[in-house]
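step: validate -> pass
step: tokenize input -> pass
step: predict -> running
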Amino acid sequence: MGIQFLREMNRRAGLYEVPLSHTDKVFFKRLMDYAKEYGVKSEKGYKIHLSLKEISIVLNWSFRNVQYNMERLEQAHCLIREDVGREMRGKKVTIIEYGFYKESEEIENAEI
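step: predict -> pass
step: emit ->
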């Protein structure tokens, strides 16, 4: 992936006044890669239907850090967390918007 996601992260973090650390950015990049490979395309972006615990396992990231990073990224509007149904308390879907992938998708398409 190119630097599009960093530009967009920094823009949103500044807009919503959320300082993002290097660790937040590394986590987000890994989450983006996972979402693109295993997520489901939707009208907003790539969706992944994983709990925070499951994200921690698939990304090999500590659960405590997943909680912290996800909260910061949601505050910066870098990702969207939506409730799934009313019966399953705490179940959410994570959406990463296509705008974060734009530059890398253009490069991939040009190489084909």
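step: describe -> The radius of gyration is 14 Å.
step: cleanup -> pass
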